[in-house]
Amino acid sequence: MFKKLRVSLLLLALPAFIGATAYAPSYQCPGYKLGGLVQNDNSFSADLTLAGEPCNIYGNDITNLNLQVKINQGNSIRVQIIDKDQKQFQIPETIVEINSDSKLTGFADLSFNYVQHPSAGFGFQISRAGEVIFDTTGYPLVFEDQYLELISKLPHNANIYGMGETPDYFRRDSTNSTKTLWARDIGDPFRENVYGSHSIYMENRNGKFHGSYMHNSHGMDINLIDDTIQYRMLGGVIDISFFGGPTAYDVINAYTDFVGRPRKIPYWTLGFHNCRWGYKSIDEVDQVIANYSKANIPLEVMWIDIDYMDRTRDFTFDPVNFEINRIQDTLNNLHANNQKMVMMVDPAIQRNSSYGPYARGIQDDVFIKNQDGSNYVGQVWPGYTVYPDWFAPNVDKWWSNEFNMFFDQIELDGVWIDMNEVSSFCTGSCGSGIPEDVVPEWPWTIPNPPPPRTPNVNNTFLVPKYTINNHQNEISEKGIDTISVHANGLIDYHVHNLYGHMMAQHTSKFLKTRRPNIKPFLLTRSTFAGSGAYADHWNGDNASNWDNLHVSISSMLDFGIFGIPFIGSDICGFNGNTTEQLCGRWTQVGAFYPFSRVHNAKGQISQELYRWDSVAESARRALNVRYSLLPYYYTKHHIASTIGTPVARPLVFEFSNDANTFAIDAQFMIGEGILISPVVSENATTVDAYIPKGIWYDWYNYSPVVGMGQNVTLDAPINHVNVHIRGGSIIPTQTPGKTVEDSRKNNFTLIVASDENGNAQGELYLDDGITYDSPSSMIKFTFDGKTLVSSGSYGYNQNTCIEKVVILYGTDNCKQTTLNNVSLSLNCGWQIQI
C-alpha cells in the first residue's frame, strides 16, 4: 500500500491567493517540519517539530507533535496530529465509540500525500483516484494549547453540505460563511449555532461526494471563505477522518460506521405525535386526545412537557393538576387504544435538601463542581439548580435509580430529554453563597438574568483569546461556566459539547436495562457525533413563520448527514402564534418528517391539528399518505440502522450529476422512491417543483409525469401536498388505520411504478416492530415488465398478505394493471406473470 503513502517536496513560494483575509490570523506562523518517519503497509507515523519562532497568536505553541495516519481498506483515512506529551484533551472512546478498524470495502480508493513546503512547512493532501480532495499545502499548521488551525483549499463556489447544528439552507454558502460548534440553548436563530455539534461535511465535486469529520469536542469555527475551509478550534488535537464516497450514501455509511450507527427505532414512533408546553391539567390532556379521535386525525403518541411536574422538578408529579393516579389512567386508556405516552426530563436538579433526587445526588457526589470543590449552582425552571456530572463514578447508579423510581410510578413508552446543552438562565454559579434552604414559594417567577458580568479576561478558559462566533457576551453565557469542574478533573471548557450526548448515553442505558429486549424511544435536544446510536432529535425551539417552515426541511436533511435519521421540527412552529394557513401547510410538510410531531410554547395560541377545519382536513389527507407508507418508512429506517442511509433525502443525493438539484431544499425525498413537493410560501396555490429526468407518478391518481430536468408548475390547493412516486420503484403500502398497530394489521398493496424501460424494484423489511430479537424478513421485489418476483429472507411470520398489486406502465395512461385479491404471501418467495 505504499502507493497510498507518498512523499513530496514542494519548493514553491506561498500561493499568491493567500492573503490576510483568507489566511488570517496564521499566515506568518512557521508551521512544522516532519521527521522520524516510520511507515507500514497501511499506516505511518512521524514527528512534527515547530519550524521557527513560536507564533503564540491565541495560545502557546506546542513545539513537538506526533503525526499518525491510518488507511482503512483504502476508502477512509484518519489523520491524527497530537502533542507529543499528550496533555491536550482527546475525546475518550467510552464517550464516542470510534470504530478505528473499519471493514467496509468497495468504495472510492483514497491516498495520503505529505508535503514539506519551504515556507509553510508540513502539509498534506488526500486524493481520490488521482484528484486531490483535501489540500493543506501552503497553509502553516497552527497547534497551540488553546488554538488549533487547519486550512484546506476548496474549489470555487464548492457544493458543501453538513456542519452544524445551525438553521440554514441545505447547501452551505462556501464563499463567506462560518459554522460555529458550541452547544447553545437558543431559539433557532438563522445561521447561528444552536443545540448540537457536528463537524462532518460533505462536498459534491463533479457528481462525486466525499466527506470529512473533525473529531474534537472543543468550541470551533469552521469557516468557508475565499475558496478554503478553515478549522479554528479552542483546544484538543487534530483528529480528522476522510471518506471517499463516491456517492453521498457511501460517505454517510463510512461516517456512521466510524462514529456509530443510527439506533433501531420502535415501529410505533412512525405515527403522529402531539405535544405542547402549557397544558394546564391532565383533564386538558385527556380532552386533546379525545378531540383528535373526534376529528378522525390519527394520534399515536401524547406528549407532556414539564407541566406535569411538581414545581417543574424532575421525577415528580403536580399533586393537583397532574395527580399520578390520573396520569396512570390516561396512560392505561392510551394503551388500550394502541397509543403511547412520552414525558420530558431535564438534567437540572433543584438545589433543595428536602428534594429526594438532590439529596441522593449529594450523597453519591454526582454534581458538577466549582473550582473550590463546592457544587456549581445555576438556574433553570426549578430555580437554583445543580447539574449531573456524567463523568462522576456514581452518576450512572444515581441516574438509573431516579429513573427506576419514576418509572415504577408511570411506565412511560419513551423519554424526552431537553435543556441538555447544558442550559442555565444565569451566567456563573449564581446560586453559590445563597443558603441551600432558600427555596422561593411556588409559583415563582424566574428572575430576569442579571446583566452580563464583566468576564475575567485573564482567565483564557473563560475568555479564550480566539473568540468563536457564538453570538453571546462570553462562551459560558446560557450554559454553565467553562471553568466548572468535572469528577475527572477536567473543566467544562473541554467537554461542553459532549454534555447532551453523555446524558443520552446514560438515559439510553437505563431504558435498555429496565426493558432489555425492547427498542427504546429517547429524544434529545443536544447531540454530538455518534448520538444517533442512543437517541433521536428534533430541531428545537423554532418559530412560527414561513422561513422556519422552509428551513425545517434543510435541518431535517442535515441530520441525515449527521447520522440521526429519525428527525423532525415542531409542526406549525414552537415560538410565536401560528396562522391557519401556515399551520395547514406545515402539517403537509411535517406529515412526511421521519419524526412527525406538532408542538408549541406556553403562552401561544393552541395549534393542535383539529383547531381549524382546513388544517384538520390537510392533516387527514397528508397523514393518510404517511400511514399508507409506514412499511416503506420502517424499511428505510431499518436500512439506516445498518448502513446509515438517511430516510429523508435531498434531491442532490439521488441526482448528484444534475446541477439543478445542488441547492434544492424546498423539496425532499423519502427513500429513493417518494418525492415531496410542498408549499413553503404564503398564499401560494401552486408549486414550481423540480422534476428530475425520468418517469414520475402522481401519488393520488397515478398519472405519469415525464421529468425533463426542469421546473414544473403543480397545482397545490389549500388541502393538497404534491407527492410523486419515482419510476423504477416498488412501494409497499398498507391500508392506514387510526394507529400504527391498527395499520399493521391490514393487508398490503404493492405499487409497481415502472421506469422508462418497464423495470422496477423495491424492498420490504418486516419484524415485530418492538423487540431486538424479533425474527425478521428482508424481501426484495423486482419487475421486468412481465414478471413480478419476490425473493429474499423470510424469518418473520407475517399474518397479513399482499392483497393488491398496482402496476404502472410509463407514459401510457391507459396501461395500468390492478390485481385485486391476489393473496400473495410475505412468508416465502414467489413470482407471477403479468
Automatic annotation (TrEMBL):
Localization of this protein: Secreted
Catalytic function, reaction form: Hydrolysis of terminal, non-reducing beta-D-glucosyl residues with release of beta-D-glucose
Domain Glycoside hydrolase family 31 TIM barrel: 264-635
GO CC field: extracellular region
Pfam family name, one: Glyco_hydro_31_3rd
Entry keyword set: Carbohydrate metabolism, Cell wall biogenesis/degradation, Glycoprotein, Glycosidase, Hydrolase, Polysaccharide degradation, Secreted, Signal
Role: Glucosidase involved in the degradation of cellulosic biomass. Has both alpha- and beta-glucosidase activity.
Homology family: Belongs to the glycosyl hydrolase 31 family.
Protein name in UniProt: Probable alpha/beta-glucosidase agdC
